[in-house]
Amino acid sequence: MSARVTRKRARMDAEQAEEDGASASTSSASGHGDSQARPGNFEQDPELWFQDGSIILVAGEIAFKVYKGPLVNQSPVFSDMLSLPQPSLDVHQDCPIVQLLDSPEDMRHFLRTLMPSKHPRFASAPRMSFHAVYACARLGHKYQIDHLVAESLEWFSMFYPSDVDKFSKYRDRHQLPSCAIAMVTLARLTGADQLLPVALAECCELGADVVNGFEREDGTRDDLAPEDLGRCITATRNLVEARLHAMEHTVHPAVYEGCEEGCIHDINMFRDRVLCGTIPGLCTTQFWRSYASLLTDEFPDVCKRCAEEFSEEELVQQRSIFRRLSELVGVAVDGWGKKPRSTRHGAQEG
Ligand SMILES: [Zn+2]
């Protein structure tokens, strides 16, 4: 059984300060009175409980005993909160106890990146889970840790890229479709508009399920704003239309008529089967979905050169759609499709 810490009434709540429109410096202790203060026990987090820690953060029912230094040094919000004298704070073994409104799941991911550790830090941990990076981005924004937000957005840009070369490289590394909803809400929160085109295109993939939102680890839900839901409806039509045009170009007879193997007959039959739906997948918003392997599966006699022409033309078309993506999904993103964009984004950008 883990050791426990007790709390009487202390409450320090940056989130409420934020909701009230107050700046971090106005965060105060015991702002909600005793009515919300539940006397009770909190469980120690098994991982983030440093015996020589200098502050105890309580999120939900979980207590994290961590070092005040990294929090104060990196977060202006924690700095303002913790540098003011807080006589009303409870204390456990000389450690002040601070109650936060964040979920323990979010807080654990957040603190892991800020506290000393033998394990790789955020930047060198490409295998972090979506939930972990998402929590770091949101809490980084809330507690104004700009580098954490920037690193998180950099990680997300692998999956929701803004330049076409990166897109070609990572188009097969998609997250679950519902993660796109989280990405749109994060882009709206942080002003990271460059994430929006790919994220909104992937939201379209969800169809009617787009209204079910994204479920966070703690069970709470993020939903698209009504304006973004509306964008998905228009974008779905635009993306399907763009894919139809792309297919027209990819199977155009002019590309194949010079082939002496007579591949044009197979290509024409392939086109007919795609258009009538015998080979499915044309009327989808997933413009990055390739037909190349379906062509060679269905028509193994198509020569190598024609198969390569097909793949190349398909890629040209996909890249062309990507360059128009911000327009197709109805968002204005500075410089989209014009030139390769930097992938480093600060929290204050946009
Ligand atoms: Zn051929």
Structure description:
Residues 1-44 are annotated as: Disordered. It comes from Polyporus arcularius HHB13444. By secondary structure, the protein is an alpha/beta fold. Among the domains are: 4-104, no CATH class; 236-327, no CATH class. It contains 15 helices and 8 strands. Strands 1-2-4-3-6-5 form a 6-stranded mixed beta sheet. α4 (104-114) packs across α5 (130-142), α5 (130-142) packs antiparallel against α6 (146-156) and α8 (179-190) runs antiparallel to α9 (196-205). The chain is elongated, with a radius of gyration of 26 Å. The two termini are 48 Å apart. Residues 1-40 and 341-350 have low confidence and may be disordered. Zinc ion binds next to α14.
Total beta strands: 8
**Count of separate DSSP helical elements:** 15
Present as ligands are:
zinc ion
Spatial ordering of strands, largest sheet: 1-2-4-3-6-5
The general outline is elongated
How is this structure best summarized?
By secondary structure, this protein is α/β, with parallel strands linked by helices. The protein contains 15 helices and eight strands. A six-stranded mixed sheet has the order 1-2-4-3-6-5. The protein has a two-stranded antiparallel ribbon with strand order 7-8.
